[in-house]
Design goal:
Number of strands of chain B: 9
Largest sheet of chain A: 7 strands, mixed
Strand order of the largest sheet of chain A: 3-2-4-5-7-6-12
CATH superfamily of the largest domain in chain A: Thiamin diphosphate (ThDP)-binding fold, Pyr/PP domains
Strand content of chain A: 15-25%
Helix content of chain A: 25-40%
CATH architecture of the largest domain in chain A: 3-Layer(aba) Sandwich
CATH topology of the largest domain in chain A: Rossmann fold
Oligomer: heterodimer
CATH superfamily of chain B: Thiamin diphosphate (ThDP)-binding fold, Pyr/PP domains
Radius of gyration of chain B: 17 Å
CATH class of the largest domain in chain A: Alpha Beta
Largest interface: A-B, 26 and 29 residues
CATH topology of chain B: Rossmann fold
Low-confidence stretches of chain A: 1-14
């Protein structure tokens, strides 16, 4: 095992003060497959790095490794779905969004096929540099009609969403949090994942944070920190990017007269912040909007902790941004 | 055998007539390709494949995937002859609200399995369907029709790799090697040959035939179906675009032919003469 590779890839899961869980996606898929024999798995030589290797080991005859052929994998998943199976296809999010767009579009989404595409290393989760940093996957894939897009916050939600999308007979792209140490956060908030539903995890009147994916985890931590300083920050979690729960988001903004932050592990271009801003504009609402997101540029290579601080998406950076606006 | 071949040749004539009928709607189109592909498509639809014309979703059907959707004209022509679609639809080919768009899509036409406008997806999707059929212990096969120009698309070779690695012997691919593509002759745009050697090197069981000889088409399809080899099958069909209409053969603009009223009259007459 190359220790260097391992540490760069799973850094994000190690930097946490929360309890952790191993391979939530893979474990949820195994449980699902025990009950539903239509579930099959595919990967393009990244089984081990997308947590589907434990599914492969549990159900070797229900798993297809197609090697480094991501475009083929999308089409093969389409073919399996056409034959009545529910394929979960995994690779890195960059390869899904950038390399496979045409294949996901013409083979899968044009026909509403029941394929689940699972993307590892979404947003900034790798220090490898732009090739492995899917900073633009929500913008790219968000343009595709009829694709449902899910960005889970933690291990709890990853497990719930893995099961929920199997029951949902449509194409889905889900961002993956993986590894031996995926934080467990949402159990404290009595949370249940529902496709297409934004949920208020914490109430507050000094600021509203609208966030998705692992940024919700960091925003909750930041909100707890600010609570101790006497500032009450509400956190609205939006795990489904498409279809966007516009109604809940706009209601949460309208109910409060305070600064509104959007927070996403994605660039400022075409992700959650863009969705919120355009919804606000279309409703002719006035809101004091602040975006916490990655810059619209190719990011540097390096260690993940440093990069997350540098680009303003670490928990520390989120707290500082909020403080500077609220003071 | 001769009776069978003669019956198939009659079918092929009807398929060609359907191609011209569709071409006449807008007085232009992918006519030469349609004529060139008519013989092996006749072999597929009236000799090799198992299907129920009245039930395009019948689970026991052989799957037919048109990868290069531009060649839909030829497939619609064969489907109409097979009574899978009503003959009247041919007169609406490519028009607004037609069931027969220029490039084939499942949404518009019953019996069309995949969309093919962006090409190179047929063999990759076939890999998944072939895996799925094997999972279901189905004896249905997946037939995929591709083009030789299309062989420049990378995913076809990704699919070829996995099809052989997973021993998907329930795939029978057909490449319509008509030698033409959008920008000219395939040999001058980019040479995709030697296709038989390439597929053989990947691990396919390969046959290369004259795709306009019904005898060779029937023999090749029978060989592929009866083969004991645990390999996917590929039939490279060398075809001549415009077959059936001598005056179209060798036309450098044969990728997308446009004819005046006089030309159309001549086309229908010449096709009929050829039958006799």
């Amino acid at each position: 095992m190359n220790k260097g590779v391992q540490s760069v890839i799973s850094d994000s899961n190690i930097i946490t003060s929360h309890p952790v869980m191993a391979e939530p996606f893979g474990n949820a898929l195994i449980e699902l497959a025990k009950k539903n024999d239509r579930i099959v798995g595919l990967s393009a030589d990244l089984a081990k790095y997308t947590d589907i290797h434990i599914f492969r080991d549990a159900f070797p005859d229900r798993f297809y490794n197609v090697g480094m052929s991501e475009q083929l994998m999308m089409c093969a998943a389409a073919g399996l779905a056409k034959e009545g199976f529910i394929p979960y296809a995994t690779t890195y999010a960059t390869f899904i969004a950038r390399r496979c767009y045409d294949f996901i579009s013409q083979a899968i989404c044009e026909h509403g096929l029941n394929v689940k595409i699972i993307g590892g290393l979404p947003g900034l989760q790798s220090g490898y540099g732009p090739s492995h940093q899917a900073t633009d996957d929500l913008a790219i894939l968000g343009a595709m009609p009829d694709l449902t897009i899910i960005d889970p916050c933690d291990a709890v939600e990853t497990m719930q969403a893995t099961a929920a999308i199997a029951e949902y007979d449509r194409p889905v792209y889900m961002r993956l949090l993986r590894g031996n140490r995926v934080p467990v956060v949402l159990d404290k908030y009595d949370y249940v994942f529902e496709i297409g539903k934004a949920k208020l995890l914490k109430d507050g009147s000094d600021a509203l944070v609208i966030s998705c994916g692992e940024m919700t985890m960091r925003c909750l931590d930041a909100a707890e920190e600010l609570e101790k300083e006497g500032r009450h920050v509400a956190v609205l979690h939006v795990p489904t990017i498409k279809p966007f729960d516009r109604e809940t988001v706009l209601a949460a903004i309208a109910e409060r007269s305070c600064p509104v932050f959007t927070a996403e592990n994605h660039t400022t271009y075409g992700g959650l912040g863009t969705l919120v801003a355009s919804a606000v504009a279309e409703e002719k609402m006035i809101a004091d909007l602040h975006r916490i997101a990655l810059p619209d540029q190719y990011l540097e290579a390096g260690t993940l902790g440093r990069l997350q601080d540098m680009y303003g998406v670490s928990q520390k950076a989120v707290s500082e941004t909020m403080r500077s606006v609220l003071s | 055998m001769d009776t069978k071949i003669n019956e198939l040749l009659d079918r092929a004539y009807n398929v060609r007539k359907n191609v011209l009928r569709m071409g006449y709607v807008d007085r232009r189109g992918f006519i030469a390709q349609g004529l060139g592909a008519s013989d092996f498509l006749t072999g597929l639809f009236f000799h090799a494949m198992r299907y129920d014309p009245k039930d395009p979703d019948w689970e026991g059907r052989d799957r037919f995937l048109l990868s290069a959707g531009h060649n839909a004209i030829a497939v619609y022509a064969a489907m109409a002859e097979a009574r899978m679609i009503p003959e009247e639809w041919l007169d609406t080919y490519g028009l607004d609200d037609s069931h027969l768009p220029m490039s084939s899509m499942p949404k518009y036409t019953p019996g069309i399995e995949i969309s093919g406008g962006s090409i190179g997806l047929g063999l990759p999707i076939a890999v998944g369907m072939a895996m799925g059929l094997k999972r279901k212990n189905s004896d249905s096969r997946v037939y995929v029709m591709m083009g030789d120009g299309e062989m420049a698309e990378g995913p076809t070779w990704e699919a070829a790799t996995s099809a052989c690695s997973y021993k998907l012997d329930n795939i029978i691919g057909l490449v319509d090697a008509n030698g033409i593509q959008a920008d000219g002759l395939t040999s001058t745009v980019v040479n995709t040959e030697p296709l038989d050697e390439k597929f053989r090197a990947f691990g396919f069981e390969v046959q290369r035939i004259n795709g306009n000889s019904m005898t060779e088409v029937v023999r090749a399809l029978d060989n592929a179906k009866n083969s004991e080899e645990k390999k996917p099958h590929m039939i490279i069909c060398d075809t001549v675009p415009g077959t059936g209409l001598d005056f179209l053969i060798g036309n450098p603009k044969s990728h997308f032919i446009s004819l005046d009223e006089e030309g159309w009259k001549r086309a229908f007459e010449e096709l009929e003469r050829g039958k006799e």
